[in-house]
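Async update (no meeting this week)

Hi team, since we skipped the sync, here's where things stand on the single-chain job. The sequence we agreed to prioritize is pasted below, unchanged from the tracker. I ran it this morning and attached the output directly underneath so nobody has to dig for it. Comments welcome in thread, and please keep replies under the output.
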Amino acid sequence: MTKNEVFTKEKEKLTNIFLEVEPSKRKLVEGLIDDAAFLKAENYQLKCLLQDTGMIQIHPSQRHLQKPTEAARQYLKNVNSYAVIIKTLNGVLAKNIMDDDNDLSEFEDE
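Output:
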């Protein structure tokens, strides 16, 4: 799979999840959806690289000396950023569901 394919697939997935959300909230999260898809695609590429290189470099003669690779550092930063974005998007979804439930409860009380 290419980086662009991963981006497109993730963006479509997240966009479909938000189809039932009211238009104003959907418009509000468009940027977050793009950012999440971007980070997912970037991490896909980094993960492919890390499968070959590993996440740490070990000194050839002094095996106790190790350091993380730059790709590993960036991968972890991206994972954290992606998680924050997904948590934010999930909060918008949860708020939308609660609003829908509150709208329905008006009819239940009658």
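Quick observations from my side:
The first strand starts at residue 56 and ends at 58.
The CA atoms of residues 61 and 109 lie 75 Å apart.
Reply here if anything looks off.
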